[in-house]
Backbone:
């Protein structure tokens, strides 16, 4: 199975400041069809995960544009342009280029 | 509005069984693949099982194959997870997820239910 590594494990952020989360894969996530199937999810405390981005950089419906995704091959980044209180929680990356789909261990974001 | 409502979790002894249900509304259930994903305490998310639109399209993680069975009833807009021979390592919150299939063996999860807690302990 493809192993995803996320860093940092924990990220304290000041309100209004940007945040950058990293996801690295043990192998390339570029599919033979040319797409890269890397998604990002946000799980607030006590809630279910919500997908934010798919195929690296496509935002899901209703996701504010303060969230952006980038990267290629094995290295990917989720950026939050200005962190708000509602952004706390755990962020997971997930790949489905290779079967089975696998998740990273998560980055916990909280407010300083 | 899309909704997924899981039920059936609880405390069970090792070796026991549970059947989880996930009732869907707000979208055309019969046209959507569905999956179960679990949140293992201290270990993060793990894909468990997925089901396609037709019989014979069921898929399982190695850790549950042979013990868990996924099924669906389109007349009830419900997906199930029958869990047998439960072990302590199966303790987790189980989420059902509406699934997007990008192509062969590329299954993504675009909407999740609130989850149901399964605790396996004597």
Residues:
């Amino acid at each position: 199975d493809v192993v995803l590594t996320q860093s940092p494990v924990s990220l304290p952020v000041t309100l209004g400041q940007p945040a950058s989360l990293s996801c690295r894969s043990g192998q390339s996530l570029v599919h033979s069809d040319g797409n890269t199937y890397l998604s990002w999810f946000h799980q607030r405390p006590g809630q279910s995960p919500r997908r934010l981005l798919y195929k690296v950089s496509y935002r899901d419906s209703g996701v504010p544009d303060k969230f952006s995704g980038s990267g290629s091959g094995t290295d990917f980044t989720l950026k939050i342009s200005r962190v708000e209180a509602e952004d706390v929680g755990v962020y997971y990356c997930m790949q489905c280029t290779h079967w089975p789909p696998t998740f990273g261990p998560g980055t916990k974001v909280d407010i300083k | 509005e899309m909704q997924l409502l899981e039920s059936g979790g609880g405390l069970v002894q090792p070796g026991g069984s549970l059947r989880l249900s996930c009732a869907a509304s707000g979208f055309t259930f019969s046209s959507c693949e569905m999956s179960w994903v679990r949140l293992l305490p201290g270990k993060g998310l793990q894909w468990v099982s997925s089901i396609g639109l037709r019989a014979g399209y069921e898929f399982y993680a190695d850790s549950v194959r042979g013990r868990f069975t996924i099924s669906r009833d389109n007349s009830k807009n419900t997906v199930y997870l029958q869990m047998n021979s439960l072990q302590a390592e199966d303790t987790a919150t189980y989420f059902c997820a509406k699934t997007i299939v990008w192509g062969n063996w590329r299954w993504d999860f675009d909407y999740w239910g609130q989850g149901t807690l399964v605790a396996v302990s004597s």
In short: The interface with chain A takes residues 37, 43-47, 59, 61, 95, 100, 102-103, 105-115 of chain B (CB under 8 Å). Chain B has no helices and eleven strands.
